[in-house]
Amino acid sequence: TFTTADALLISTWRYRPLTNIGGDVNALLNAAQDDAVITSTNYQWNPMLTATQQFNDKTSNLLTTNAYLELTILPELKLRSTAGINTNYTETDIFNTSLSRLGNPNSTLGQGGPNGSVTNAKVINLVSENTLNYNKIFAKKHSVNVVAGFSVGQNKIASNRVSALIVPNESLGV
């Protein structure tokens, strides 16, 4: 994933959409960088291009469910069994065009040209818990309450990622 510590708002504050009297403001607003301040350590980039030319879409499908069953085996003995599942399927699509600061060949933060990636991740958590509860009162004075139980869980994680650097036809994306 191509990330920077630069937030869009910081980039907006840093960008200098000013020009000399009689200068072309539209040219400055449509340029990736302000030619008057370009240096090798200048991370300033047109925030409008950043907002419209860097794509980072994330889609998640989440499911969490739990169920239990309680069974009276004897009047004094009960079994309780619970099960739960938690799933998360996530797809992340990232694309940086040649006009973005992460995809422009002239950008110090870029990857040499248009680039992007598609990442898929799947997480499945399963749990099962079972308890036996024995509760008996003797001679109306004494009681015994014994609980025994066990739990078992499983976590499965799978992911894959495809990425491309210097995409030759950026209109196709990744």
- Secondary structural class: mainly beta
The spatial strand order of the largest sheet comes to 1-2-3-4
How many helices does DSSP assign?
Answer: 3
Distance between the termini: 13 Å
Over the alpha carbons, how many angstroms does the gyration radius reach? Answer: 30 Å
Q: Give the fraction of residues assigned to helices.
A: 10-25%
**Share of residues in strands:** over 45%
Total number of β-strand segments?
Answer: 4
Could you say which overall geometry the principal axes of the C-alpha atoms support? elongated
Order of helices and strands: HHHEEEE
> Could you give a short account of the major beta sheet?
4 strands, antiparallel
Catalogue the unreliable spans. none
Calculate the mean pLDDT score and round it: 86
Task: Provide a concise account of the structure shown.
The chain is mainly beta and 174 residues long. The protein is 11% helix and 51% strand.
What does this molecule look like?
There is one protein chain. The chain has a four-stranded antiparallel β-sheet. With 174 residues, the chain is mainly β. It is built from three helices and four strands. A hairpin with a 2-residue loop joins strand 1 (54-74) and strand 2 (77-96). It has helices spanning 8-14, 25-30, 47-53; strands at residues 54-74, 77-96, 115-138, 142-164. Helices cover 11% and strands 51% of the residues.
